[in-house]
Amino acid sequence: MSDASTGSLYVVATPIGNLEDLSPRAARVLGEVALVAAEDTRHTSRLLRHLGIAPAVVSLHEHNEAGRVEQIDARLAAGEDVALVSDAGTPLISDPGFVLVRELRARGRRVTPVPGACALVAALSAAGLATDRFLFNGFLPAKGGARRARLEALVEREESLVFYESPHRIEATLADLSTVFGERRLVLARELTKTFETFLDGSADELIARLEADPDQARGEFVVMVEGAAPREVGETATLEADALLASLLAEGVGVKQAAGAAARLLGGAKKTWYARAQQLKDGD
Ligand code: SAM
């Protein structure tokens, strides 16, 4: 249980390009806390100067995060508030902070989000891809083999897929997306909220051609989105494996209705459709 005499850790989102995206609440919190823990102190100092405030700032990045926990916890224990920020967007989203937040929560400290910009949410909100379900995958592995293996593991997913990518690897990643996803629709969101914000839409091969025709399109920061796999029709799902399951149940004397129920439970899809398939198999089709 957190007690009222201790401080809070505020997890504060900062802009991903456009400084107007910093919320008034974020500005107030950064001005009120005793300490700001920042991924890069120089980078954050520029933002703080822009806001006209000068709180104490310490670094918190992947190499010193574990060591900072005690120091920050001591400040909270003393009743002081601390803010956590990263270079851009929401801390912990492909950014440092997870170790600190997990540890402080385990110790019963108050951890409060101050929400704001996040590149993946900004990209999805304007891409025109389905957003009812999506799968955020962070950065893909840097090495080609591992990257393709990761993509291959995702090819059947029906959710929209979202990746972060650096300009150094965007072309290689598009080439791998072409190999793995073929003609599947992609959206490339570049330089969100900045002067040269662009959304490019098309198959991986179409996007590669666009980047080759205009190398400026390969510069900057990217969110790569891939349309989810089309939901499988039952006809497609009625693979040999599924047929084998139904056939073996029927062979054991399980009724068509029960076999359809078992297939729906095990394989998903509507019981009605499995019933029709089981009936076909029973009739020898
Ligand atoms: N914490 C951040 C967030 O909330 O989005 C993400 C940090 S991650 C280290 C940086 C990656 O986010 C970039 O390589 C890029 O893929 C994506 N990103 C950040 N800002 C972006 C922007 N303005 N436009 C497009 N992508 C951006």
From TrEMBL:
Keywords: Cytoplasm, Methyltransferase, rRNA processing, S-adenosyl-L-methionine, Transferase. It catalyses: cytidine(1402) in 16S rRNA + S-adenosyl-L-methionine = 2'-O-methylcytidine(1402) in 16S rRNA + S-adenosyl-L-homocysteine + H(+). Residues 9-207 form the Tetrapyrrole methylase domain. Its main location: cytoplasm. Gene3D superfamilies: Cobalt-precorrin-4 Transmethylase, Domain 1, Methyltransferase, Cobalt-precorrin-4 Transmethylase, Domain 2. GO terms for molecular function: rRNA (cytosine-2'-O-)-methyltransferase activity. It is found in: Cytoplasm. Its EC number is 2.1.1.198. Residues 237-282 form the RsmI HTH domain. GO terms for cellular component: cytoplasm. It comes from the Bacteria. Pfam families: RsmI_C (PF23016), TP_methylase (PF00590). Belongs to the methyltransferase superfamily. RsmI family. Catalyzes the 2'-O-methylation of the ribose of cytidine 1402 (C1402) in 16S rRNA. PANTHER family: RIBOSOMAL RNA SMALL SUBUNIT METHYLTRANSFERASE I. HAMAP family: 16SrRNA_methyltr_I. This is Ribosomal RNA small subunit methyltransferase I. It comes from Halomonas elongata (strain ATCC 33173 / DSM 2581 / NBRC 15536 / NCIMB 2198 / 1H9).
